[in-house]
């Protein structure tokens, strides 16, 4: 039990943080709003106006756990890429060999085909090294950038994130762009047949060993979720409905664009939004993801310093720098046992704020706890919305991202509020995805090829 009572011992912080403290009724309202927006995203006549667009993945085959063979994948993130050779053995084991490639700034910022030529070169080096360059192995892409999927192997790039300058690729199919670059290597045969977004890749990666996995959840520097929908409910899908299921990429980070979060967004949320790279967009994500949680904590502390309520007389030169507070610092502050503030003091030392009083460090921890709690509550509202919609009696949820993996308090909050917001007959379990989205992309490629490779893969 903590010695300090926040309401009595640091009333200024308590009052300032009241707008972050969400009631159970508020969370139910948000869950219900997300449910309606999700339903609208699936409808042809409402899709364009929904803040949860529910994009089709065109992934309709789920793994059974009996898939065998060797598959390739490319995991493409904003700062790096990973090329993978994935082998599925008969013992339900996954063997993965990979090569991480840092994309040089000069390549990322280039405007022509340099990026895809760079990727193709590194893929060529990798498959030659693994001696599979002639095997025509199925290959899938797990893609962290925004796509408009038109089929399993057609993903039209909508936009890059900051730092990428290959504007010539916007509006084009990234599978085709990479295939064209690979075609320059005449000694290589690769069956590049699919592209999935990161959350769908996370879902598929876990579904091989957990057949009841029905949600892929990303909570980190960004947030998103993919889930399994009935094909008949996907009005935007114009193909055959013989296959009953379709993985949907919710793109729920945009929730709030229609005003559904206005009643909980406070002055600090609005400040963070105003200085972000995309003001007015991704409002749900800006209440949740690691980048924004750190900045929210920093802004609250700066306000309290100006009020004379915390760190009196300390130099704020370093703490005043935007985006300087990182999630790893927040997790360190919250990692101390009750009434111990060793890690919190170490964090403040990095900001050159030394010899802090125990009360100030307790107040700092309270601020971090409230901001991270709200993040977990909002994610829980979204997950509960998906669980209730699918209405399976028991599912596993694949979670990727450092917040859940490395932050025990976040795990506790997320489980608690998901349980509160989920129908009682729908059981669920969060499972940390040990295998990356690239493994899921490899599974998608294998299923898409319809080739059952049964040779000895040792």
Let me know the number of strands. Answer: 13
Helix coverage percent of residues? Answer: 25-40%
- What is the count of DSSP helices, taking H or I runs of 4+ residues? 16
Sheet having the most strands = 6 strands, mixed
State the strand order across the main sheet.
1-11-10-9-12-13
Radius of gyration: 23 Å
| Averaged pLDDT | 93
Structural class: alpha/beta
Name the overall outline.
globular
Order of helices and strands: HHHEEEEHHEEEHEHEEEHHHHHHEHHEH
Distance between the termini: 54 Å
Give the amount of beta strand, in percent: 15-25%
Low-pLDDT sequence parts: 451-458
Give an overview of the whole structure:
Helix content is 40%, strand content 19%. It is built from 16 helices and 13 strands. It has helices at 6-9, 11-17, 24-42, 105-108, 114-129, 174-182, 198-207, 267-275, 283-286, 290-306, 327-335, 342-350, 358-390, 402-406, 408-421, 437-449; strands at 55-56, 69-76, 80-88, 94-102, 137-143, 146-151, 154-159, 190-197, 213-219, 223-230, 245-249, 394-400, 427-432. A six-stranded mixed β-sheet has the order 1-11-10-9-12-13, with helices on both faces. It has a five-stranded mixed β-sheet with strand order 4-3-2-5-8. Strands 6-7 form a two-stranded antiparallel sheet. Helix 3 (24-42) crosses helix 13. The N and C termini lie far apart (54 Å).
List the helices and strands and how they pair.
Layout: H1 6-9, H2 11-17, H3 24-42, E1 55-56, E2 69-76, E3 80-88, E4 94-102, H4 105-108, H5 114-129, E5 137-143, E6 146-151, E7 154-159, H6 174-182, E8 190-197, H7 198-207, E9 213-219, E10 223-230, E11 245-249, H8 267-275, H9 283-286, H10 290-306, H11 327-335, H12 342-350, H13 358-390, E12 394-400, H14 402-406, H15 408-421, E13 427-432, H16 437-449
Parallel strand pairs: 2-5, 5-8, 9-12, 12-13
Antiparallel strand pairs: 1-11, 2-3, 3-4, 6-7, 9-10, 10-11
Helix pairs in contact: 3-13, 5-6, 7-16, 8-10, 10-13, 11-12, 11-13, 13-15
């Amino acid at each position: 039990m903590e010695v300090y009572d926040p309401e009595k011992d640091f009333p200024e912080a308590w009052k300032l943080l009241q707008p972050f403290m969400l009631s159970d009724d508020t969370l139910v309202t948000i869950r219900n709003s997300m449910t309606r927006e999700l339903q609208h995203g699936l409808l042809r006549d409402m899709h364009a106006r929904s803040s949860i667009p529910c994009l089709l993945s065109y992934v309709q085959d789920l793994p059974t756990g009996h898939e065998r063979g060797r598959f390739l994948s490319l995991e493409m993130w904003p700062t790096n890429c990973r090329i993978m050779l994935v082998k599925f053995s008969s013992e339900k084991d996954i063997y993965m060999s990979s090569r991480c490639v840092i994309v040089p700034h000069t390549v990322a910022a280039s405007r022509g085909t340099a990026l895809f030529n760079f990727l193709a070169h590194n893929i060529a080096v990798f498959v030659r090294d693994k001696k599979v360059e002639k095997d025509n192995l199925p290959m899938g892409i797990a893609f962290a950038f925004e796509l408009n999927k038109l089929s399993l192997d057609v993903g039209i790039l909508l936009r890059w994130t900051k730092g990428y300058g290959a504007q010539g690729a916007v509006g084009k199919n990234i599978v085709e762009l990479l295939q064209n670059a690979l075609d320059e290597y005449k000694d290589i045969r690769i069956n590049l047949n699919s592209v999935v977004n990161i959350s769908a890749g996370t879902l598929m990666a876990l579904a091989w060993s957990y057949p009841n996995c029905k949600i892929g959840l990303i909570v980190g520097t960004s947030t998103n979720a993919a889930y399994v929908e009935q094909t008949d409910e996907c009005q935007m899908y114009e193909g055959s409905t013989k296959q009953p299921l379709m993985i949907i990429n919710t793109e729920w980070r945009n929730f709030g664009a229609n005003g559904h979060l206005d009643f909980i967004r406070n002055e600090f949320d609005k400040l963070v939004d105003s200085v972000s790279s995309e003001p007015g967009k991704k409002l749900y994500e800006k209440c949740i993801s690691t980048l924004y949680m750190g900045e929210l904590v920093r802004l609250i502390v700066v306000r309290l310093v100006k009020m004379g309520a915390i760190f009196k007389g300390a130099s704020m030169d370093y703490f005043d720098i935007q985006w300087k507070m990182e999630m790893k610092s927040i997790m360190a502050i919250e990692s101390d046992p009750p009434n111990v503030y060793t890690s919190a003091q170490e964090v403040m030392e990095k900001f050159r704020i030394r010899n802090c009083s125990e009360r100030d460090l307790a107040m700092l921890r309270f601020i971090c706890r409230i901001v991270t709690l709200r993040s977990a509550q909002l994610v829980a509202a979204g997950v509960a919305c998906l669980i209730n919609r699918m209405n399976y009696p028991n599912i596993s949820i694949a979670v990727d991202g450092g917040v859940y993996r490395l932050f025990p308090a976040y795990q506790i909050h997320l489980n608690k509020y998901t349980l509160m917001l989920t129908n009682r007959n729908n059981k669920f379990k969060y499972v940390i995805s040990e295998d990356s989205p690239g493994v899921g992309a490899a599974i998608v490629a294998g299923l898409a090829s319809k080739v059952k490779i049964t040779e000895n893969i040792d």
